[in-house]
Amino acid sequence: MVYAGANDGMLHAFYLGKLELDGIWNVDPNKLYKKASLTDPSNVGRGKEVWSFIPKNVLPYLKHIADPNYCHIYSVDLSPYVFDASIGAPGSGDISNNVKDVNSWRTILIGGMRVGGACRKSDAVCSNCVKAPGVDLDGGGVTTDEEKSLGLSTYFALDITNSLNHPEDPASYPPQLLWEFSDPSLGFTSTGTSIVKINMKSDDSNSDGKFDGLDPSATTKNGKWFVVFGSGPTGPVSTADHQFLGRSDQNLKLFIIDLKNGPVAGSIWTKTTAEANAFAGSMINSTFDIDTDYQDDVVYVPYVKETGGTWTAGGVGRLLTREDLNPANWEWSKVIEGIGPVTSAVAKLQDKRRGQLWLFFGTGRYYFEQEPPDDREGQQAIYGIKDPCYSIFKPNFELTAACPALGGLTDVTDIGDVPTDYTVINAMNGWFIDLNSCSDSAGTEITPADCASSSVGYRTERMITDPLATTLGVVFFTTFKPKDNFCEPGGLSYIWASKYNTGGAAAGLLKGKAILQVSTGKIEEVDLQSQFGEEGGRRSSGMEGVPPTAQGLSLITSPPPVKRTIHMRER
């Protein structure tokens, strides 16, 4: 099945087919594999739409689609996120303390409206915020909280297990709505979700009143599953040119919801951070299980915040779970700050041998195009840093006075500054590469001092797509240079490939293809061995078009090596 949100107000489910091996070995003796093909054993019809779903908070906006004069509006605009969780079937009650079995597992889809909907109730007092339309549900006027809130930007959770197993009969096996969540302090639902699993505890062995990582885990049980959302931008929309400006008028907040129960009393927790006028970036795949005990220890949260009247500051924070079943005890702390707006996710690589946890991210934002363009001249960068609070001996992290927010990074913008001595490399806190400043119409970089001139063809390079860290030790960053003329939307997309621990070129490790679909509709295919000829062998040439936000880059490479004998042949 393929799931896609659309601005017609619906989440669509399409049947792609069943992937099966055809049983025929490839005849090339140097390439031993079987071919696979998509079949249709249930005669559903490949490419057929099986079902669609309209969230409740989209309903007030559907009437505009039928109006020939309506302007474009966003609705189900967030890429859906699909995962498996052992929470039991809808209506089965709380099975967190039950032993896991095959019937525990369900396939869940989280969708959302991204920058669709509203972020304030219809009676909110504000000049340029996006208010809900206010819907009179009972004929008595818009008086209830539900009527004032209908139309807020929303997330929704569907159990798609049965429909996935029976695509031939959607009427008998429809998707089941678990819950829908909106809140005036949630902002726009642009961050996506992080999934957190915490094991049940057999007892409070240290009698501290907390069922946390210091107590024995009941690893055979289903445990608790939570979803974490960050507050998104709260608007506003410019009244002059109707652009969404990507700002926030509140502190950064984190919302934690029990996946099974949904956002009801006793199953939702809100963490308000000290980051004023801030909002979260992409939170897809932002959790990490440090000690591989099948429960998540940390959620990394990129964020954007205001400084001097512009939303061009930001950093990365962490939400520590302490492996605690009560999210009220989870703790927020900063990893790094003052680096610029971080709108894309944080990728991770763990080096257990050296006791290091590496984090990878980049700065940049791109919410509007018209004058003045979004962050036209700001210097952006890509980063690889060690989490200073990580220790293989203390999986719950060590937050003390000796564990401050990170600083003192090595500048490897110039390929000649990349260290090669392992003593120096191991002593580094991390590295950064400054991205290009503005360019002329041919894509040639010009000095930052000239960026305000009329000769600029492209604005500063920035990162709005999630990075991708591989177990081969190579990290991929997708960056973007917007065109300076807003009458010519688009720009140039690039792919960077760097060694995880130095930021240097990864030439000997680059094998396979990188796949990226850009805004022109073209699917770009980049050969990893031959097409990284810029920036010291670390960047591809520019590709015309805007890259996707959040997840976007895919790799076709050889699998990592395995520590076992694959084949033995006697001579």
Name a few traits of the molecule.
571 residues; mainly beta; five-stranded antiparallel sheet; five-stranded mixed sheet; globular
Topology:
Elements (H helix, E strand, L loop, with lengths): L1 E4 L5 E4 L3 E8 L8 E6 L9 E5 L8 H4 L15 E6 L18 E8 L32 H5 L5 E5 L1 H5 L10 E6 L11 E6 L1 E2 L15 E2 L5 E7 L4 E3 L6 E4 L5 E6 L9 E5 L5 E3 L6 E2 L9 E10 L2 E11 L10 E7 L9 E5 L4 E7 L18 E6 L23 E2 L10 H6 L2 E5 L33 E2 L4 E9 L8 E9 L13 E5 L5 E5 L15 E2 L9 E3 L15
Parallel strand pairs: 26-27
Antiparallel strand pairs: 1-2, 2-5, 3-4, 6-7, 7-8, 8-9, 10-13, 11-12, 13-16, 14-15, 16-17, 18-20, 19-20, 20-21, 21-22, 23-24, 24-25, 25-27, 28-29, 29-30, 30-33, 31-32, 31-34
Counting DSSP H or I runs of 4 or more residues, the number of helices is 4
The rough form would be described as: globular
Which regions have little confidence, pLDDT < 50, spanning 5+ residues? none
- Strand percentage: 25-35%
**Cα separation of the termini:** 47 Å
What's the total count of β strands? 34
In angstroms, what is the radius of gyration?
Answer: 25 Å
What integer is the average pLDDT? 90
